[in-house]
Amino acid sequence: MRRSGILLHISSLPSPGGIGSLGKEAFEFVDFLQAAGMRIWQVLPVGPTGYGNSPYQSSSVFAGNPLLISCRKLREEGLLSYQDEEEFTPDDPETVDYEQVKKNKDFLLRRCFTQSAGRLQAQLEAFEKEHSWVSDFALFTAVKNHFNQVMWTKWPDESIRLRKPEALKKYRKELAEEIRFHLFCQYLFRRQWNDLRKYCAEHNVLLFGDMPIYVAEDSADTWTHPEDFQLDRQRIPKRVAGVPPDLFSETGQLWGNPLYRWGYLRFHRFDWWINRMRGMAELYDILRIDQFIGFANYYSIPYGAPDAKTGKWVKAPGKAFFKRLKAAIPNMEIIAEDLGEASPRVKKLLKWTGYPGMKVLTFGFDGDETNPHFPANYTENCVAYTGTHDNDTTLSWARKADPKVMDFAMRTLNFSGVENAPEAFIQALFRFPCETVIVPMQDVLGLDGYARMNFPSTIGGNWLWRMKPGVLTQDLSMKYYLLNKQTDRR
User: Fold this and answer.
1) Is-catalytic flag, 390?
2) Domains in the chain with CATH codes
3) Can you tell me whether residue 385 is helix, strand or coil?
4) Beta-carbon contacts of residue 385 (< 8 Å; ≥ 6 apart)
5) Catalytic pick among 128, 390, 423, 448
6) Residue pair 206/123 in contact by the 8 Å Cβ criterion
7) Which pLDDT tens digit goes with each residue over 262-288?
8) Model-wide pTM > 0.85
9) Which one from 218, 337, 338, 443 is the annotated catalytic residue?
10) pLDDT by residue (tens digit) across 396-412?
11) Which of 83, 258, 402, 413 yields a CA-CA distance of 20 to 30 A from 282?
12) In whole angstroms, what is the distance from residue 102 CA to residue 77 CA?
């Protein structure tokens, strides 16, 4: 079935408190999608944000980000009492001030914990019993707080770093109240997420999530399951992830994520991965696997290397993993992020899985009509975007593009004027044969580069953009409703 959707992260909603949340504005966005004839809401990863506030560097592959909890919703439910002026109000409504948001959200959630944890004791116990990961995650977060947020591989107490049984018992006792607080936050997040997902289902909207293939070095996952990663006896990575030098980077990209011990995981029937994917299926209707190519082959860089030049390609499990996944979770809808260096092995694996790959229209006008992102090369079994969270907005791309590139795009898509690029790209995208098309909200609104979400391989100034209140007008929803009808998307 032909369908369309919008890419907008939860943090970009115009919610009170300085950051988008799972409150009223999220439900209003679902209403907008339904009115616009859209079937899909794509979000970025929703785990606790880590280094650089990146949703792709999370402290857990299972946990939710407490910053996305709606305090207004907690107040409406009688779980939290506070005055409006106690909630952070930013000077700039289009930018997230993470430092202030974190302080304020922690303050209000701790008050909620004091006011309501006691009467939710039965629900908390049931939640902990149902989610095996949450106990270790809460302990990990409490110990990190205890050691002033130091990375777990540098915790001064080696016994807890190495998860010695006596240390686990000691810290569970000493930090019992802090552990319970973090358990409480995860319960609140999941409670609000489940409400939103139910509302989406009732309004014929699918939640489309994003899953990074790698986990952060400083995560509960590496601490709890070190045997699954290429770590030494002191839990320091031996080799880390990245990509090799290319036209965009002379030194490549050094991501620094620990690599998997795929042989060990395969021997254990990929159980850790299957549990992770089950966790994703609890959150989303559709899942994009970021860096899908890492299941075919991955780039391995020595730990401590100054850049990615000294890395090498290593074969990953390929079909063996996806055979196990398809048997364990047969109805999971997966999209493969196959951007980047797609080797013959990657292409062969993607074809075998049958998963749709990705096309990005702003990548398609380098003058080479064999470019997989050139409009003539789009097929039904792909998900097409004007751009992704890692790209500039279409308007900004057009304003900066080489005149020859822009002329080629205008001739190909039959439009004139740089300022008309966002509208022309969207109109073309909806008419392509792809079953699914996704447009970033920034392009729907025709915004310039100030609204760009991320500059890859940079720290600071990313993940900040927020949508202005009041932009989801009836005229805008009607425009897309008609476009969906005209292009047989529903």
Assistant:
1) yes
2) 3-356+435-486 (3.20.20.80)
3) strand
4) 7, 358, 359, 360, 361, 429, 437, 438, 439, 440
5) 390
6) no
7) 999 999 999 999 999 999 999 999 999
8) yes
9) 337
10) 999 999 999 999 999 99
11) 258
12) 22
